[in-house]
Design brief:
globular, 6-stranded mixed beta sheet, 66% helix, 598 residues
């Protein structure tokens, strides 16, 4: 239960008490403003506290936005202020200072909000738009404020604001017009966003099972269920915004389940194709690798530049000019094949064609989108004059996922000539040599192992210095391409039964670790613990291990498949247990992504 304290008796006819109770607050009223401090001290520790001016006039949703959003330690709107438990000492200090003789008490909540800002507590002030939140000082102003409240339907505003401001074309025009009403239906029945997220995952897994049948009826059912899963995927976020039920766990589940749903569906398609004698596991794994590398490009670029100074470029200015033309905004959002358009394409093609066509369409479309976005970001990086911060450099190092072999390499090399090369050059040499050897040498060749050792040395050297170069954000996606690509190539060239499905599971387990790293950094909690990265070897250690296994087991039939399977299961267990432990017990702030997941 949260507590709301009215700093004085409400005006006659005011609905403020009932409005606050409808938002879940236990309402207490100070007989005089100087009693507010005593009431604040009496609130049990750990509870959210709100202070509300008894003269407040406004929409209930304005109060909801100002007082119930869990993402912020403090928030305020005209006449209303709230703090979570961690900011309560600062509020008590501000209240004591505001009660000092000679202090202007006409706008107590505003004074307190300014004092919290000055005390180092960031106070969130939500954009209310057409919603009303005001503190009238006389009868005439109060009458005008009430008329303004009556002129705006706050429920309609609440429904509109439940939809992301920057969704894709398909989501905006084909899903959100009705999914927002599903979100409201869920809210009125007490369903939580996490429950809807779980329902979306289960629906997608059933869709994958239908695709795995390999029958036309199963493919049609899979396509329909995949779209239903996407509707639910949109609904969970809209429910979170509609009811302001954000949570750390919810943000993690939403992001993680998106990848689990999509990659499970790929596996279902591959199983269905196998039932009909068509082996498309290489295409399924290729699609997963392409999608993951594309996401890593997005994550790395954003982490490298979100707090950079002088973060402007002619390319960014051109992009802003294009955004002023309405049709170009939708065209540019569609051509990168975001999640809405991508899932719609997969669903339709699954229902009317076959898995091989689905995967080729997916690979071609996503490859084009990846090239488009990466080229644009490279141009921005080369033309902007930005200074990268230490935090951004550390985020890139964490995303690189370098393990103990990289650290050992750096200690051995010291400050030799190799370390003087730019990090991007070293990473390009390492990645190119590794993939070329995997492709150009026979399966199990000793030369491939030598190339893997070369990869360890150069990849380790590339992260020996802070990653503050203009294009150093490319290192994490290059390392993902090298590791995942090596696993795909070796499994495909082994011609061993079951090697590609095992490789698919291995890449999925490692990709989960990499996505988990991203979401931890986004949540402000930093990268996974060092022991976890060391335990699973880092990208360079895993790449070397797979090439060594290929060399040792090249002549032993299914042993390579068993080795990949064992490695996949081990990594999956380690990263899943640690990830679940962290997110369940994490003190990370509640977050919610307002951009469409790619």
């Amino acid at each position: 239960m949260s507590t709301a304290i009215l700093t004085g008796p409400p005006a006659p006819g005011s609905s403020l008490d009932g409005d606050l109770r409808s938002l879940g607050f236990d309402v207490r009223t100070a007989a005089r403003p100087d009693e507010t401090g005593a009431l604040l001290a009496a609130v049990p520790a750990g509870e959210r506290v709100a202070l509300v001016d008894p003269r407040f006039v406004g929409h209930v949703h304005a109060l909801r936005l100002a007082l119930t959003d869990p993402r912020f330690p403090a928030a305020a709107a005209p006449g209303a202020l709230t703090v979570q438990n961690g900011a309560r000492p600062a509020l008590a200090r501000a209240l004591t200072a505001a009660a000092a003789p000679g202090t202007d008490g006409d706008d107590l909540t505003g004074t307190l909000a300014d004092a919290l800002d000055a005390d180092g507590v960031a106070v969130h002030r939500p954009q209310l738009g057409t919603l009303v939140a005001t503190v009238p000082t006389d009868a005439e102003a109060r009458h005008e404020a009430r008329a303004a409240v009556d002129a705006v339907d706050d429920e309609a505003v609440r429904l509109r604001s439940a939809v992301k401001a920057h969704d894709g074309f398909f989501t905006t025009f084909f899903i959100s017009p009705y999914s927002r009403y599903i979100a409201r239906w869920c809210a009125r029945r007490g369903l939580t966003p996490n429950q809807v997220t779980t329902a979306s995952l289960l629906t997608a897994l059933i869709a994958a099972g239908c695709a795995a049948t390999g029958e036309r009826g199963g493919y049609i059912a899979a396509g329909v269920l995949l779209l239903v899963s996407f509707v639910l995927d949109c609904t969970d976020g809209q429910l979170a915004r509609y009811a302001l039920k954000y949570s750390t766990m919810g943000a993690w589940l939403d992001a993680t389940f998106d990848r689990a749903k999509e990659y499970a569906f790929y596996a279902g398609l591959a199983l269905g194709a196998a039932r009909n004698g068509d082996d498309v596991w290489a295409l399924a794994l290729g699609a997963m690798i392409l999608m993951t590398c594309r996401h890593v490009v997005d994550f790395s670029f954003n982490e490298a530049n979100h707090d950079a100074t002088a973060n402007t470029s002619p390319t960014a200015a051109l992009s802003d000019r294009l955004d002023s033309l309405g049709w170009t905004v939708w065209a540019r959002r569609m051509i990168i094949l975001p999640i809405g358009e991508r899932w719609a394409m997969i669903a339709v093609l699954t229902a009317v064609t076959n898995p091989r066509i689905v995967f080729w369409a997916l690979i071609i479309g996503c490859a084009f989108g990846a090239c488009y976005t990466t080229a644009g970001r490279v141009l921005r990086s080369l033309t902007r004059k930005a200074k990268r911060t230490d935090r951004a450099a550390q985020a890139l190092a964490d995303l690189a996922d370098s393990g103990p072999l990289a650290a050992l390499t750096n200690r051995i090399l010291g400050r030799t000539g190799i370390l003087m090369l730019p990090p991007l050059v070293l990473a390009l040499i390492a990645t190119g040599a590794m993939l070329a050897a995997a492709l150009g040498r026979p399966f199990g060749s000793d030369q491939t192992v030598v190339a893997a050792v070369f990869y360890v040395v150069f990849a380790g050297a590339s992260v020996a210095r802070p990653l503050k170069g203009a294009l150093d954000w490319l290192l994490p996606p290059l390392f993902r391409a090298a590791e995942y690509g090596t696993i795909l190539i070796l499994a495909a060239r082994s011609e061993v039964n079951g090697a590609l499905p095992a490789a698919y599971g291995l890449v999925a387990a490692v990709a989960y670790h990499h996505y988990d790293t991203v979401y931890r950094i986004r949540g402000g909690t930093g990268a996974p613990p060092t022991w976890l990265v060391r335990t699973i070897g880092g990208h360079e250690g895993r790449t070397l291990l797979v090439t060594v296994l290929a060399a040792l087991l090249a002549s032993r039939g299914n042993d390579f498949t068993l080795a990949l399977t064992a490695l996949a299961v081990t990594i999956a267990l380690v990263v899943l247990v640690e990830s679940i432990r962290f997110w369940v017990s994490s003190g990370a702030p509640a977050v919610h992504d307002e951009g469409e997941t790619a």
